[in-house]
Structures are given as C-alpha cells and as structure tokens.
Amino acid sequence: MTSFDPRPVFILAVAAGLLSITTMAAQAGGQNPPPPAPAGRVVRPIPAPADVAAPPADAQKTKSGLASKVLTPGTGSDHPGAADVVTVDYTGWSAKGVMFDSSFTRAKASAFPLNRVIKGFSEAIQLMVVGEKRRAWMPEELAYKDRPDKPQGMLVFDIELVSFTADPTAAPSDVAKAPADALKTKSGLAYKVLRAGTGAVHPKSSSKVTVHYTGWTTDGKMFDSSVSSGQPVTFPLGNVIPGWTEGVQLMVEGEKTRFWIPQKIAYDGQAGSPAGMLVFDIELVSIQK
C-alpha cells in the first residue's frame, strides 16, 4: 500500500509479494524460498530446453538483443502495454541449464506490472498475446548486469501470458464527475458496475473482504493501487472510510465497480490524506466472513 490508505483506522501490513522478477533470483540464492507447492504443481527442477545455451537460427531478434520464439500461438489479438499488469506462468534457466525459478513450483501464476521487472522480461511479454507461450533469450544487459547477487549471464525464460489488464495508473475518462448513468445513494455515493460479479452474497459492514483497487483524485492523479503492486488486500470492512464501507456492501464476489465518493464520506479533510471527491475502481475478490 502507498501513503494514502482508504482504511484510516485499520492499518494493515501487506506483504510485498512478487513485485519484481528480481524475486526470482533471491529465491535461487536461498533467500525467501517459496512455500511448498500444493498437490498438482511441479516441485522438481524443470529440465532446460535443448536450445537453452543459445537462441536457434529461427528465433526472432529485436534491436535490444532480445531473442524469442513462439512455442504456442495465442488466442488473443492485443499486446500488453509497458505499464500493464500481466499474469503469467514462467520458468527461468541460466544458459547452463540450471533452473532458478518457476511459477509452476508455486500455487498459481504470477501477476505484476510490466514496468517493475527486468527489461528483457518486459520487452518479451509486450510481444505476446493472451494464450501465447514464448521462449525468450535475454542477454545480460537486459537481465541482471552488474548485480552479482542475481543470476548472471544470458537468461532463458519460457513464458505463457495468461491475461493482462490496462495500466492501473491511467485515470478513467469520467474521473472528474460521475456520469449520468451512475447510480446514487442517499449519502451521495455514486457508483457504476464495470463488470458483473459471479457471487450472490453481499458483504456486511462486519465482514472481512479481499479486494483489488485503484484510487484517483478528480484531476486524474492516482494516489494508491493494489493492482500496481500485484497484491490484493484484505481488511475488515467496518474499519475503512465510510464511502468504502457503504460501497463494497453493494457488491458481490467477482464484481468490479467504480465509485465516486464525496469528501464527507471519504477523508473529510483529514490531514495528509487526499482531499475532495475520490474515485475508486474496486474489484471484490472474496468475502471471508
């Protein structure tokens, strides 16, 4: 979480999670090892491909020196942008064929913003579409050059792009005021469902919820986002600003809604907090109780 927290009473220490591909190397060096993989996930070292030592002649090359080859064509048509948040499965090897990290040894695919990873990883994924699997050979200049605590030399990754979402820092076009088709409550809260949910139960003010969110001021400046960190947050719904408590109770699991929260049910002049009406995109991931 960044400095502006929609939970003025409840302060939650959120684990950083996988914010950077640099985490891969730390795990390889014995620091912060991943938890034991659940049943059905790969826990043994995944064998390196036969062409791990050098890209084959049919690999595509970019001006930066990145080489890559499509292993499985994708089903999508759009490519992620440089600041988009992607969800990927991947395995990484050194040029000697030593695996140093793999999402397959953990419980799920990894999600992170593309502008917070090594250059070669970001560049390779921007070449991809959803559903595609690609092998990338990243020269040291695009990986961990001059960082002796990280994997050295050329690195090779097999990457599958599971999904991606637009740059969470980009403010929506209606950030300045609620559109005419937004619904409004007696408190002045305005909201619009962006994606219908799959659940049927609404949380209560006493519920603990897990959400992804991004918040902007009405001039379009993003002041906080769990999406940009790649980690959803969990907290008691009764310990947040009133506009959040009211708004999230209108939602069901899987739903994504945009809220325009007037100052009086936001921070109401609280020093050090964003002033005026605030706009939040909130996705209700789950309800704990």
Protein architecture, described:
With 289 residues, the chain is mainly beta. The chain has two domains: 22-165, Chitinase A, domain 3 (Roll); 183-287, Roll (Chitinase A, domain 3). Helices cover 8% and strands 29% of the residues. The protein has helices spanning 22-28, 119-126, 242-248; strands at 60-61, 67-72, 85-94, 99-102, 110-113, 133-138, 155-165, 183-184, 190-195, 208-217, 222-225, 233-236, 256-261, 278-287. Strands 1, 2, 3, 4, 5, 6 and 7 form a seven-stranded antiparallel β-sheet that branches. The longest helix has 8 residues, at 119-126.
Span between N and C termini? 23 Å
Low-confidence regions:
1-38
- What is the global morphology? elongated
Overall pLDDT score: 86
The CATH topology of the largest domain corresponds to: Chitinase A, domain 3
The percent range for strand residues is 25-35%
Structural class: mainly beta
The helix tally amounts to 3
Chain-wise SSE layout:
Blueprint: H1 22-28, E1 60-61, E2 67-72, E3 85-94, E4 99-102, E5 110-113, H2 119-126, E6 133-138, E7 155-165, E8 183-184, E9 190-195, E10 208-217, E11 222-225, E12 233-236, H3 242-248, E13 256-261, E14 278-287
Antiparallel strand pairs: 1-2, 2-6, 3-4, 3-5, 3-7, 6-7, 8-9, 9-13, 10-11, 10-12, 10-14, 13-14
